[in-house]
Write a structure and sequence with these properties.
By secondary structure, the protein is mainly β. The protein contains two helices and 15 strands.
Amino acid sequence: MNLIKTEIDGLFILEPTVHGDSRGWFYELYSQRTLAELGINTVFTQDNRSFSAEVGTLRGLHCQTDPMAQTKLISCTKGEIFDVAVDIREGSPTYLKWVGVTLSEENKKQFYIPAGFLHGFVTLTPDVEVLYKVDNFYSPENDRSIRFDDPAIGVEWPCLTPILSQKDACAPCLKDSDVHFKF
C-alpha cells in the first residue's frame, strides 16, 4: 500500500497494491498491520455503507462532536465520488483548509480522515456505493452537519446544483454551529 501525504498533516490518500491477471484483480481493502507499518494505528469499530442512485448526490459536510468524534477511512466500491475533508481544528495551521480527492472503483484509492475534520462527498456517476470505517460508534446526539457551501470554507464542488437531504439543506454555517475542535 502506498501512503500519499496531503497538504494537511494527518490527512492521507492510500493507494492499494492491486494484483491482477486474466481472471481479474485482488487487493487488501483493509489491513490493520499494513496501516500500522505506515504509521496509522487507528482501531476501527464500525463499518458503514451508503448507496446513492443519482449523479450529483451530495452528502455532507458531516462530523460527530467530542467525545464521539470519528476518524474515517473512506472507499468508493462502485462508481465515482469527489470526497472532501475540511480541517476544523481551531488553532491548526491548516484551519478551514480542505482537500478533495476522486475515489472510485477504478482507482481503488482510500481517504484517511482524522477526527476534527468535516467530511462530505458528491457522486460523479450514478449508482454509487461508499464503504467507510470509523473508530467511534454512531451517536445521534453528537451528529452534526455544516453547510456544504459555507463561504468561510469554500469547497469547490464539481456539482453546482447538488441533490441534498433535508438535514444537509438546512445545515448551518460552521460559525453558527456548536462544532468546535481544538488542535
